[in-house]
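During the reporting period the student researcher (J.K.) took over the structure-prediction task from the postdoctoral fellow and processed the backlog of single-chain submissions. One of the processed entries is reproduced below for the supervisory committee.
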Amino acid sequence: VVQWSASEQRLYYDCIAEGWYEHVHSGRPGHRATCLAISRDQGMTWTKPNLGLALWNGSRANNILWPLEPNNRSGGGLEGLFRDDRRGVPDSERWKMLCGVCEPACLKHGQGVCASPDGIHWRVVVSHAAISSDTYNMGQWDPVSQQYAFYMRHEPPPGGFVAGGPPDRRQIGLCLTPTLEDICIGGKGNI
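J.K. obtained the following structure tokens:
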């Protein structure tokens, strides 16, 4: 939940359709979306605004924020919303979220970064899918280290991912990177 203004809270939540896991892992289109609910009474009641952005079951009359394409195979939603108030960040990129991206031909899935001026209209600003991660990732700008800090839950490849870590189990990793373009590539950001 995000305190959007003095009179509005926003809930960004994951909607996972029945059979989503089987679809993603079979290469068929995913059925996972990020949706929005709004409260104007301190969270007592919530409404689902008709955003008209994403096509779902032949209609745009829904509260889906992401993905906008009905056959998105990334299997990823938006997660880890944060406000980037650093000097020099354009208003069009004030709000950021990690987002599931699917590189050309969907041969590689991973985490990208989306940006928004208003928390509703999102666009991909980093799409190279450098991080192969699982769900429920968080990120923010860390003013102490002057870097972005991303905590990622990921599923390692068979045989383990982190030296000394348990094999074949999900792990939590920290990625520190000074720019979004360098997110977890090479030595600058490591999980």
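The committee noted the following: The longest strand covers residues 8-16.
J.K. will present the remaining backlog at the next meeting.
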